[in-house]
Amino acid sequence: MTSSVVFWDFDGTLARRDDLWAGALLDALTVVDPKANVTLDRLRPGLSTGFPWHTPDEVVDARTPDGWWWSLRPTFLAAYHGAGVHPSTARAAADRVREEFYRQDAWELIDGSLEALSTTRSAGYRNVILSNHGPELPQLVEALGLADFVDLTITSAAVGAEKPNPRIFEFALAKVGVHAHSDVWMVGDNPIADVEGAERLGIRAILADGAGPGSRGRTVLSAAEHIASESE
Length: 232
Ligand SMILES: [Mg+2]
Fold this sequence. Notes:
By secondary structure, the chain is an alpha/beta fold. 41% of the residues lie in helices and 12% in strands.
């Protein structure tokens, strides 16, 4: 098996979900109470803390999928409470967030992501998704049609550590059986979690944030082409 590996971030790099967690909470609330008069802006403040990636210095024992979602329940309830949702409605909606967050049709691939994965694979790399995410990310990757181009999906929920914590990078390197200084890259849209986190271990990293106005990054396809051109 090739020792050349590209680690790919998921959210904002390969795919996106409308309004991410606030979007999922609003979708769940709308299912439970179609007349609920709540906006994304009222849900967002309650979601700025409480997720494991808000405290990447903390490493925990990996939870079961049910345990991972249960640990977020107080965060969901607090967000609904902050938005003025009735407690009984909030409890029912919180129970629905898991299903809504990973609803396949809520996600879309970012332009160029399939071509990017195909480019690095053709250049001899294994593609490994390395993401701060929930337990069901591997199933979502499959549902979005990425599985044909992806060798492995590693989600922080199954590791108990979040980027930029070195522990999740060390876990990923060990899992694929390569060293940080072999032909390994990290591509992601977050300058701290993805780029600084990887570089701290000596992994080469590329910021792929869509290369919009004022960006220092590349598009995901241009990142892949750069890696292929540097291929050893
Ligand atoms: Mg991201």
